[in-house]
Amino acid sequence: MTKQERVSSLIKYLKKENDGYASIMEPVNYHEKRNLLRSLMNVRWPGEASSEYYELQDALLKEELKKKGIVRLREIPVVVDEYPCSGIKNAERISIWQGDITRLAVDAIVNAANSQMLGCFVPCHGCIDNAIHSAAGIQLRNECAKLMEEQGHEEPAGKAKITQGYNLPAKHVIHTVGPVVGVDVTEQQKEQLRSCYLSSMILAERERLRSVAFCCISTGEFHFPNKLAAQIAVGTVDRYLSTSRLERVVFNVFKDEDLYLYRKLMQ
């Protein structure tokens, strides 16, 4: 089966799940066709699919991952190699890496989730929550839904939960809800952001993981100031590693602005 045929089959399956999608026309262009599939996955409510769907979806996502390229820890330098005179105490266990977090082969990547903890439902949205769920497959939302059903209430800011990584190169995804900032950052919001990093690392250690990659929690849709967020992230992680068994923490940045901020903090 070709990639085009695989995508078409997945679109047909998801359209059949909802009568309201009957009028949606499948595009001819592959890029538009693939965006439609992602959109249908994004808006799909939690629920099991057929074994045929999973087989087709997983094959497609693994093929796309292979094309993007998997990035392994050994390919990412640690801070002490880039900045030998760094003031960071645990510079030999911390890295900065710019790129797509869904390419990282670590024990866990950290997802900046919302309080529903079900992933982003906005079709093809640019947030990291959407990117991670789209690359992992619908199984990730299904597992998140089970966790939230067991919990019985929305996830508070600063806590963390762990799931499998499914079609990601990361073995697990740690989901944490960062604070949403209005006009000014409050002391409570600063503490909540610190708690996001601490809760994620504590959970990783409890699960006997050795490597964790953090995104820039709360700096996107939640409007936490980038510079202050980076300062909190680096300070919290460096202090925690002084008494931790974690072997590597990667600060994953996407924007040039964040890369500059993290590099300045490491010097």
CATH topology of the largest domain: Leucine Aminopeptidase, subunit E, domain 1
Radius of gyration: 19 Å
Regarding CATH, which class of the largest domain?
Answer: Alpha Beta
Note the beta-strand portion: 5-15%
Total strands: 8
Shape: globular
Order of neighbouring strands in the sheet with most strands: 2-8-7-4-6-5
Task: Report what the structure shows.
With about 270 residues, the protein is of the alpha/beta class. It has 2 domains: about 5-70, no CATH class; about 70-265, Leucine Aminopeptidase, subunit E, domain 1 (3-Layer(aba) Sandwich), CATH 3.40.220.10. Helix content is about 45%, strand content about 15%. The protein has helices at about 5-15, 30-45, 50-70, 80, 130-135, 140-150, 185-205, 225-240, 255-265; strands spanning about 70, 95-100, 105, 110-115, 160-165, 170-175, 210-215, 250-255. A hairpin with a 7-residue loop joins strand 5 (about 160-165) and strand 6 (about 170-175).
